[in-house]
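The instructor's notes for this session suggest beginning with a concrete chain rather than abstract definitions. Hand out the sequence below and ask the class to guess, before any prediction is shown, which regions might be ordered.
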Amino acid sequence: MKERSKQLDIRHLLYGREISVGSEFSIVGNNDKYQENLIASIQVDSSNKLDEKKA
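After discussion, reveal the predicted structure:
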């Protein structure tokens, strides 16, 4: 069976909302045969140097 290509664009679900570090959310989708789950957690990337560039 050929694997389907999947793309998710959830930006519109999060636009204008505040998301705190440590938050989690999930999205569940159902179709005729399958249930798919997306679980995300918001974390800090300690190797990200963006804050240092602002200073």
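Then share the key points. The chain has a mean pLDDT of 80. The radius of gyration is 16 Å.
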